[in-house]
Here is the input.
Amino acid sequence: MRLTDMACPRGLTLSFLLASLALPHHGLAYKPLSDNFLKQVPSVSDAELDPTTGELLMPFLQPRAPGSEGHADIQDHLVQHFAANLPEWTMEWQNSTTYTQDPKDKKKKFVAHHRSNLVFRREPPWTRQGQANLLTLAAHYATPSVGVPAEYLGATDAAVSCALLLHVARSLDRFAAQMYKEMQELGEGGTVPMDMGLQIVFIDGAGPAVASKGNKDVDVSGSEGLAAAWEKITNPALPASLYGYPNRLNQISLLLLLDLLGGAEPRVPSRYQTTHWAYQAMARVEQRLGGLGLLTSKGASTGSTNPGAGGFLPDHSTPVHQLDLASGWATDRDDHLPFMRRGVSVLPVVPDALPENVGTLKDDGQHVDKATVKDWSRILVGFALEWLDMMEVEPQAPAVRRRRRRTPTAMMAAAMSGEE
Ligand SMILES: *[C@@H]1O[C@H](CO)[C@@H](O)[C@H](O)[C@H]1NC(C)=O
Here is the structure.
């Protein structure tokens, strides 16, 4: 599935394609994590989610409409956070200006909207520009300029999603570092499943929440500017022996758009046939985490695989042809659309129903359902680890490690004392 779901890389010959398709799909990439690995998938902590002191969520909880002080403050925070904690990541601004006309203005003056998207990337160190395929996670960091109270904090819109992006980045970084190092030592790389990286995008503009309040003016200006720019930025041609992607958009293997997360008992439907298999893979991670007792919120999976068993991802057992493609109001309005229109595979992690407090002053840190956010943090990291084929760098459980290091004498002594 993987190859066919991605934009066809330039230079991929037909014979190579046919040879790849003959391989079992698991050999290509997506390998489930072991139970041992799932148990070690890190979660965000209650302390980090504290609205006044928590270092992960608190910095986002301020009014941050484009052009405001809070908006600039969050940009600084993101740049400094990555520089200080994730120095191997590249940082890139993508700025754009779009113009709209206010219908109420008699002179029909154009109003300029400056948007600054922030992009952080962790690519395999051996890849050249245009060679890596990137699992891409995105969320919008601004709050609306109109339609909400001036002091609006937008916890579910989308501060919590931004905090989750930071958690995914830091959690994956450690494993990516180890995996890239081992692969480099073995001289690996140069194929689609090996040249996988991670890309985290903080989108400017306020997303769709204003639209929910009866205003049809959906602000996807940030993602529109980004998708349009990436379509135009062509990668340099690579030698014929290497495959490569024609532009930055083609390098996105899958776009996970996070939005409106942080409320209790979310239900995220599967919205698109082309990414239903990825949705189901994520749902399987949720079920397995639930089965291991690692999910604690009320709405999360308990591990049951029965159709109708619920969980955050209730379409886990829905056959692809039975998807209700019209379901969910976010289907036709959110930041994934400018990418989808340009042919990118997208999986919106956006609940079906709006969180209770969105658009109001009650959408603050106090009203975030911490248990739900912690469950999301495990599900998203688990999925990303599987996507990037991180079973190769599975951390050993302490018990296993101990047993391996035992000397023959120690083992004999243990056997004699009746220990396992
Ligand atoms: C993009 O905008 C940000 C913030 O508005 C600014 O700090 C940055 O220098 C700009 N970058 C470019 C390349 O224009």
Summary: The CA atoms of residues 99 and 249 lie 23 Å apart. The domain at 2-416 is CATH 3.40.630.10 (Aminopeptidase). The two ends are 43 Å apart (CA to CA).
